[in-house]
Design goal:
The chain has 573 residues and is an alpha+beta fold. The chain is built from 19 helices and 23 strands. The protein has an eight-stranded antiparallel β-barrel with strand order 16-17-18-19-20-21-22-23. It has a six-stranded antiparallel beta sheet with strand order 3-2-12-11-10-9, sandwiched between helices. A hairpin with a 5-residue loop joins strand 21 (545-550) and strand 22. Helix 6 (152-160) packs across helix 7 (177-191), helix 14 (399-410) packs antiparallel against helix 15 (414-427) and helix 17 (448-461) runs antiparallel to helix 18 (466-474). The two termini are 38 Å apart.
């Protein structure tokens, strides 16, 4: 099974801890030198292809570009290169609403039905504020269409034809792209001009953002545009036509102008900006980590806001430390090759004059480099030997290998695909997804026995793997035992309760009620988890498993999280 994208902050945070214990920051080294050394290391090891800008106290201290904007023409990236911002675009849409609010053209408490009476009656309860902070309850439009290139109007038609919500407005926080498409339509309806024209006149021109534009046409010509690729080097370029939630193109220089303007009143008042950086309060009294187009830290000592973007081959990130007026912006065009959170963690440490750590080299980077000049079998052997010689230098996460295996499978190179999936399993023997992929390639070569064997193992490792169950059922294999319900006594669940620490800033809090277990990561919503065995649990929301470990005295002392690779959190209370 080709692993689906996981937008959970949890996964991003977990991956950041797969790093080498190698302090690299010294007092004799300037911060710009440290940043340069860090980014050159990332690029040299296939982890970063893109542009970066870092500022301290409002001054740019590092600005650079690494790699190609266009693989075919070998055009190099420069700091002026423009990228699809993906969901980083949302903060601009939110600002558009804020500008109209200050002009008394609308109110955050206006009901959706006021602007679009075509919606069902539930739109009487959805406010503009709900759309801004993702508490509207609107259904995800992409679940009701197989078409990738939807326009705003097509998304609007899908949403007005839904006769129910996911939840009552204000009851929950649930990230929703459709809500921001509707906000774009509201801006156009209230202002009487297109979103492109509105943004240019009210945001881009006043801030002298000369390289930034709203793009609602895949054929739109943009100067210095970086082409999007996936991590294995295939073109995965911009090709959509909706706006509001995405589709603003910009570069690091313009984004720096943008983020610095938010310390001023060039666009709206400080009071209005502060409200955008205030998290939403849910009806049950809990607080989300989202304001108006920004994710908000819960650190009371050092408040920061940030947002990431992910679309086609583009990955984008902006973070603003509001306490110290520090910021950094990362724009890339090589898909999931980037190790975002490892970079973020290192940059944060460099800016705070703390030691930082160089990441382990993704095993996929070594494998891909070897494949460029060798057969797949030879490349695997070269990579295997490198791991054996320097086991502590490599991160063994297999997502990239899995993606490469599917490339060969699509090209009918089944023997190469089989070799890659087997190698991936060798590196990640507890990955449900890898067993699923191996089962798929065995089906492709008509080895049904081995296909069933691998699909069964996949389902055992991840009972939430509906694909494995579906394939096994189609092959006539009984799956009732694979999906059987398991109950763990409440007394045992109580022993798992407590706080588990991954690092100084990230914890898992485990609670239970009767015969149900709950896990909450720092800054995350509470996740209900379900038992696979007495001490191993899985989530139905994200592809993750949690195993509780005992020490020599039989006491629970740690939690192991598996999301394709394993990390351990120690119990601290």
């Amino acid at each position: 099974m080709k692993k689906k994208s996981n937008h959970s902050l949890l996964k991003v945070i977990i991956l950041s801890f797969i790093i080498q214990v190698l302090p690299f920051y010294g007092s004799a080294q300037t911060k710009s030198d440290a940043l340069d050394k860090l980014m050159k290391h990332y690029h040299a090891n296939g982890i970063f292809n893109g542009t970066i800008l870092v500022s301290e106290n409002g001054k740019v201290i590092y600005r650079n570009a690494f790699g190609y904007a266009n693989n075919e023409t070998k055009q190099l990236l420069t700091p002026e290169s423009c990228f699809d911002l993906a969901s980083v675009s949302k903060q601009f849409t939110a600002m558009g609403i804020m500008i109209l609010k200050e002009k008394n053209k609308l109110s955050y408490d206006d009901k959706l039905i006021k602007y679009f009476p075509e919606f069902p009656a539930y739109a009487n309860d959805i406010t503009i504020r709900n759309l801004l902070n993702h508490t509207s309850g609107l259904l995800n439009y992409y679940e009701f269409s197989d078409k990738d290139n939807l326009t705003n109007f097509e998304i609007f038609k899908i949403l007005i034809n839904r006769n129910q919500l996911s939840f009552k407005p204000g009851e929950k926080y649930a990230y929703n792209n459709g809500g921001y498409v509707i906000l774009a339509l509201i801006i156009e309806k209230v202002s009487g001009v297109s979103l492109t024209a509105f943004m240019k006149k009210n945001i881009f021109d006043p801030l002298k953002m000369k390289n930034t534009s709203v793009c609602n046409d895949p054929g739109f010509k943009i100067k210095n545009r970086a082409i999007g690729y996936n991590r294995i080097g295939e073109i995965d370029d911009y090709k959509i036509s909706h706006t509001g939630s995405t589709s603003i193109f910009s570069n690091v220089d313009d984004l720096f102008l943008w983020e610095q303007s938010l310390y001023t009143e060039k666009l709206v008042s400080k009071k209005t900006i502060d409200e955008a950086f205030t998290p939403a309060t849910i009806k049950n009294g809990s607080v989300s980590n989202y304001g108006f187009g920004w994710r908000i830290s819960k650190d009371k000592q050092q408040k920061s806001v940030e947002h990431s973007g992910r679309q086609f081959g583009y990955r984008t990130f902006i973070k603003r430390d509001l306490t110290k007026n520090n910021s950094y912006i990362l724009l890339t065009n090589y898909g999931d090759a980037i190790a975002f959170n490892e970079i973020n963690l290192a940059i944060d440490n460099i800016l705070s004059s703390s030691p930082y750590m160089l990441p382990k080299i993704p095993v996929f980077s070594k494998l891909k480099e070897a494949i460029d000049n060798n057969s797949v079998e030879t490349a695997i052997e070269i990579t295997r030997k490198a791991i054996k010689e320097k086991p502590n230098e490599f991160a063994l996460n297999g997502d990239g290998i899995n993606e490469l295996g599917y490339k060969y499978l699509r090209e009918k190179k089944t023997n190469d695909a089989l070799s890659l999936f087997k190698f991936n399993l060798e590196l990640n023997p507890k990955s449900s997804n890898t067993y699923d992929s191996l089962g798929e390639v065995y089906l492709a070569i008509n080895d049904t026995i081995k296909a069933v064997e691998n699909y069964k193992k996949s389902a055992e490792l991840d009972p939430n793997n509906s694909n494995a169950i579906k394939v096994l059922t189609k092959l006539g294999i009984a799956t009732d035992k694979l999906t059987r319900e398991i109950t763990v006594p409440s007394g045992i669940l109580k022993t798992y309760e407590g706080k588990y620490q991954l690092n100084k800033n990230y914890f898992f809090t485990v609670t239970s009620k009767e015969e149900q277990l709950f896990i909450q990561g720092t800054g995350e919503a509470i996740t209900t988890v379900f038992p696979i065995s007495e001490n191993r649990f899985y989530s139905k929301i994200i592809t993750a498993q949690f195993t509780f470990n005992k020490n020599a005295n039989g006491e629970i002392d740690s939690l192991t999280l598996n999301m394709g690779s394993e990390v351990v959190a120690q119990k601290v209370n």
